[in-house]
Specification:
The chain has five helices and no strands. By secondary structure, the chain is an all-alpha fold. The protein has one domain. Helix 1 packs antiparallel against helix 2, helix 1 runs parallel beside helix 4 and helix 4 crosses helix 5.
């Protein structure tokens, strides 16, 4: 029973990280779009939202981040960016490292 509970917890953790990271990427995209459109009040709303998401990401352990990067990071980035993900994969990984603080 305990093994099943641990597996359920792991699945829950990665589903949570999936959603948070995806929301963070969309917030970043919307920040750029609001700057281009000169809608600065919305820009600051997205900055605040991204900051809250960063705080949530930092709550996970280094092991959880490492497993997420190995197993789910690419899928989530592909979901947001599609085939364009390949061109910015290194930068996205650096951004994830900055946000999660796992490489510092």
């Amino acid at each position: 029973m305990k093994g099943g509970r641990n597996e359920y917890k792991r699945i829950w953790i990665y589903e949570k990280l999936d959603r948070i990271w995806e929301e963070y990427l969309w917030a970043e995209i919307h920040m750029v779009e609001t700057i281009k459109a000169r809608v600065f009040d919305q820009f600051w709303e997205y900055v605040d939202y991204a900051s809250c998401l960063e705080d949530l990401i930092k709550e996970f352990s280094a092991d959880e981040h490492a497993e997420f990067i190995q197993k789910r990071f690419r899928d989530v980035c592909m979901k947001v960016f599609g085939e364009n993900y390949a061109r910015s994969a290194d930068e996205l990984l650096k951004e994830y490292g900055r946000v999660s603080r796992i490489f510092s």
